[in-house]
């Protein structure tokens, strides 16, 4: 009964958004970029992160805007739950590194890294905000340890990204 219920919840939440380049089941493109956690810069490679377990890769439009700050706060409040489920959270935007260093402290509360989405990453993940070129839309991917996309949620409204990605990560453990 429990497995059936988990499958039902996952099926209800795992529908790919319209226009997403990476549907469920696709291989997530590897990338290398710079990021920050706790105000300190570091080099981030997706493949390295996946060796440690599943990754929630969430794209957000612009650091320090209302929705993006609220979303970062929500991910930071749930950081322990993601870690307990074995997953790492990584935020991505086209913001520059100095901005992301500040954002990693003030909005992410040192709980998870944020990284620069280069033009190649934006293209590979098809997260360009059509209304405002140069920014990313709000899309969250759950990528399993093998690099396969297992969940996609794309919605400019920030409020359900944390709960939906956490449910998808928890379903991976079962």
Per-chain topology:
Blueprint: H1 2-13, E1 32-37, E2 40-45, H2 46-50, E3 55-59, H3 66-77, H4 79-84, E4 88-93, H5 97-106, E5 114-116, H6 119-124, E6 139-143, E7 149-154, H7 161-173
Parallel strand pairs: 3-4, 4-5
Antiparallel strand pairs: 1-2, 1-5, 3-6, 6-7
Core attributes:
174 residues, Glutaredoxin, seven-stranded mixed β-sheet, 7 helices, 21% strand, globular
Largest sheet: 7 strands, mixed
Uncertain stretches = 1-19
CATH superfamily: Glutaredoxin
Range of helix content? 25-40%
Distance between the termini: 13 Å
By secondary-structure content and strand pairing, the structural class works out as alpha/beta
Structural overview:
It is built from seven helices and seven strands; from the N terminus they run H-E-E-H-E-H-H-E-H-E-H-E-E-H. Strand 4, helix 5 (97-106) and strand 5 form a beta-alpha-beta unit. The model is unreliable at 1-19 (pLDDT under 50). The protein has a single domain (2-173), classed as Glutaredoxin (3-Layer(aba) Sandwich), CATH 3.40.30.10. It has helices at residues 2-13, 46-50, 66-77, 79-84, 97-106, 119-124, 161-173; strands spanning 32-37, 40-45, 55-59, 88-93, 114-116, 139-143, 149-154. A seven-stranded mixed sheet has the order 2-1-5-4-3-6-7. With 174 residues, the chain is α/β, with parallel strands linked by helices.
